[in-house]
Amino acid sequence: MFGLSELAIILIVVILVLGAKKLPDLARSAGKSARILKAEARAMKEEQAAHEQTAQADQADRTAPRVVQGEIIPPANSATTDAGQSTAPRTHTPGTEPSRPQA
Q1: Predicted local distance difference test score (pLDDT) of residue 77
Q2: Exposed e or buried b for every residue in 50-79, given b needs 16+ CB within 10 A?
């Protein structure tokens, strides 16, 4: 009987004899496949790094207080504090004429 190494050598010889015309095409397509695989792996790594950066930026945005300019909205329950001071909103915006309270 033949051993494993003898069968492998016979198989290689048969492939070379019968497929000699196809070997350059096979090698070329194997090279293209390897380049595509390498490029996709690199793109996936860069995409993952970019995703991690945006996730960190989003986390920083959620923890940092946001300042929004506009009018101050008083609490819904009362318009005065315990000390009796009015907490009515200031409606003056820089660059405009201050609004007057209506009586």
Answers
A1: 67
A2: eeeeeeeeeeeeeeeeeeeeeeeeeeeeee
